[in-house]
Every structure is written in structure tokens, then in C-alpha cells.
Specification:
By secondary structure, this protein is of the alpha/beta class. 53% of the residues lie in helices and 13% in strands.
């Protein structure tokens, strides 16, 4: 399987330098990350929302080594919210945040991440939108869920992400569904050991369906994070059986992948949210997109061969 190899490369400084230096890399990265600054991203937000889509915005960057960098990440999200305020899009555009960017891995990281993310959640609520806490590797999840619980005391619309490939996730889903949380379900994109995660695609897909059924039958708001046509069809059927209306769940897909499907689902009346990342520290995000789907890797390799 190439996925684990690519994920290992995502942590290699040597591979980062090689890939960053490839002439074609910028062109390929643009497929997944449509800009580096807020000014770059505003036209994208306006275009996608005008076409009936919703968005979740991610300022990319995870290699935080100082409290000052964590504060800068917080400020980058606050600057984004200031720009979104003028667009008056309300819940059409939310934010996704990785707590690693807010200092979670630093000494005292749990408290630091909570202190940094809270003003972002407060500012998002002030313009009528919300924040979803992205899931990272399994060692960070207890902290993420604790911060999620704490934020929901004042901002119950705060969402979180769960990953189908982890053994723990079925229990996490039952708890979150019971307490009415907004939950994005994804397959998972980090290299995890066999002791904590399924390693085979068919096992992950089965777990995804079991967990999605729990979320659809629960009291929360499911967000179906998948590009898989089969899982999308299953999600629609599970929603129908659970008696959910079209505004009581949503689909989420990555910017740059299956754009026609985004528009098709929106045209059929589904809530369709596009996960849209921007920023200069794109490498880790980009490599996980390659690892998630062989077609992404083929696209990149073909570009290197034809334009490098």
C-alpha cells in the first residue's frame, strides 16, 4: 500500500525539499489549495457560495514549535473571520481547525490550545457561523474531545471530527450522537499502528457505515466526509431510514476533488460543504491528500512526468 509510504514522506524534511522544488508542484498544489492569503481565498468563497455550495475553511499549518507560532495561527483565523464578516454569509462558511496549530503539542499544550481556540470560536459565533475541531493522530484525541466538550458549554454548535479507521471511534460516535454534537465522519488520513486502527480498506469501509448509522440514528448533526460514491449513496439511504430532512445532515468533500459531484448534490437539494484550505504551509496537507486516494497520487505523478 502506498498510503503509509506517502504519510511517512509527509514527515521527511528531505522529501519536503525535493517536492517543494519540483517545477510542477505549484501547479498541482493549486488543485487542492486555491490560495495562500485571505485576499486569494475571498474570490473562491464568493464563487463557490454563489453556486449553491457551503464551505469549511482551513488555514493550513501543523508544525508549531513555539507559543508565538500558535498565537499567529489563532490570529490568522481571526483575520479570516474579519473578512468573512463583510461577506455576510452566516453559516454558509464555517472554520475547521487543527489543535496542533494552536499549540496542543507544546508544554502545557492542552490549556494553551484551548486558550487559543476559544477566541476563534467566539468570533465565529459573532458572525453567525461555527468551528469544527479536526481530528489528528490518535494520541491527540483525548485532548481534542475534552476541548470540544469544554467549548460546547458556551458554544454548543462547535463540531468535531471522528475517524472510521480507529477502533475507538464507534464508542466515540455513540457518545457524540447521544449528546447532540455536530460530527464530521471521515475515514482517516494519518499513519496509525495496527494496535489502534484498521489497516485494510474493506474493514475501514465497514466501520464507516456502522458509525454513520449510529450518527444518523442519533440526536446530533452528521457531516458525511467522503468522496466515495458508494458511501454517499449509503448515507442518503441511512438518512432516509432515520427520517432526516435534507437540512439535518450534510456532505463534505475536499476542494479540488469531484467538483462536479459537489454541484450535483447541491442541485439535488443536499447540503454540500467544500473543505477549502489555504496558506503557505501546505506540505503536510498536500501529502495526506495524495495518501488518501490513489487517483490523487496518479494525478501528481503524471504531472511530474509531463511537465517537470
Amino acid at each position: 500500500m502506498l498510503g503509509p509510504v506517502i504519510l511517512a514522506a509527509s514527515r521527511s524534511d528531505r522529501m519536503r525539499r525535493l517536492i517543494s522544488a519540483a517545477p510542477v508542484t505549484g501547479q498541482v498544489v493549486d488543485r487542492f489549495i486555491p490560495g495562500e492569503t485571505v485576499d486569494d481565498i475571498v474570490p473562491v468563497v464568493e464563487e463557490l457560495t454563489a453556486r449553491g455550495l457551503e464551505l469549511t475553511m482551513d488555514v493550513v499549518g501543523e508544525d508549531i514549535t513555539t507559543p508565538g507560532q500558535a498565537a499567529a495561527a489563532r490570529d490568522a483565523y481571526l483575520a479570516l473571520i474579519d473578512r468573512l464578516r463583510a461577506l455576510d454569509l452566516g453559516e454558509r462558511v464555517e472554520m475547521s481547525v487543527k489543535l496542533s496549530m494552536f499549540g496542543q503539542s507544546l508544554p502545557g499544550g492542552h490549556e494553551l490550545a484551548l486558550a487559543n481556540v476559544r477566541p476563534v470560536v467566539e468570533a465565529a459565533a459573532a458572525i453567525g457561523t461555527t468551528v469544527t475541531l479536526d481530528a489528528e493522530d490518535h494520541t491527540t484525541l483525548d485532548s481534542m474531545f475534552a476541548i470540544h466538550d469544554e467549548l460546547r458549554k458556551d458554544f454548543p454548535q462547535t463540531g468535531c471530527v471522528i475517524q472510521a479507521y480507529l477502533f475507538r471511534t464507534e464508542a466515540d460516535a455513540r457518545r457524540l450522537a447521544a449528546n447532540g454534537s455536530r460530527v464530521r465522519l471521515v475515514k482517516g488520513a494519518y499513519k496509525e499502528p495496527a494496535e489502534v486502527a484498521y489497516q485494510q480498506k474493506h474493514e475501514i469501509d465497514k466501520a464507516y457505515v456502522r458509525i454513520l448509522r449510529t450518527l444518523m440514528d442519533g440526536a446530533g448533526y452528521p457531516m458525511v466526509g467522503s468522496h466515495d460514491p458508494r458511501l454517499i449513496s449509503i448515507a442518503q439511504e441511512l438518512a432516509r431510514k432515520a427520517g432526516r430532512k435534507p437540512d439535518e445532515y450534510e456532505f463534505q468533500m475536499l476542494y479540488g476533488i469531484r467538483g462536479d459531484e459537489h454541484l450535483r448534490l447541491a442541485a439535488e437539494g443536499h447540503r454540500m460543504r467544500v473543505y477549502t484550505a489555504y496558506g503557505t504551509d501546505w506540505y503536510g496537507y498536500f501529502m495526506r491528500r495524495l495518501a488518501e486516494k490513489p487517483a490523487n497520487l496518479r494525478f501528481f505523478a503524471r504531472s511530474l512526468l509531463t511537465k517537470g
